[in-house]
Specification:
Order of helices and strands: HHHH
Shape: flat
Radius of gyration: 27 Å
Number of helices: 4
Distance between the termini: 70 Å
Number of strands: 0
Length: 119
């Protein structure tokens, strides 16, 4: 029994020592600046618009429930719009990156010298 416990403890130690190496190699890459900026601006605009809608509704005499409904409609409407815009932006950035990667792997056309190709 003691040998089995020692083996399991040793296995756990080796697994723990190997796991930080695996974690470092699979660290997520940060978003490109344009996408990060776009997501941040969209979130701030949606938040402030929702709050402003609720406050203006309450100041104009709407009930609390009606102000909350108006705020939710504003948040969901703008959220859908900004999601669509951010989707198109991210899709286009991926397409450009794919096109650039394919372009670097392509061979020079016949008649071109390597100096002209790399310049």
């Amino acid at each position: 029994m003691a040998k089995k416990e020692e083996k399991t403890k040793e296995q756990k130690k080796t697994e723990q020592s190997q796991s930080p190496n695996k974690g470092k190699s699979k660290a997520p890459q940060p978003l490109p600046f344009l996408l990060d900026f776009s997501f941040s601006v969209a979130s701030l605009v949606i938040l402030f618009t929702g709050v402003l809608t609720v406050v203006l509704s309450l100041l104009n005499g709407a009930s609390l429930v009606m102000a909350a409904v108006r705020g939710c409609v504003a948040v969901f409407g703008l959220g859908a719009l900004f999601w669509l815009l951010n989707y198109f932006l991210a899709n286009q950035m991926l397409q450009v990156a794919i096109h650039d990667l394919k372009g670097t792997r392509s061979k020079p056309e016949e008649g071109e010298s390597t100096r002209e190709f790399h310049a």
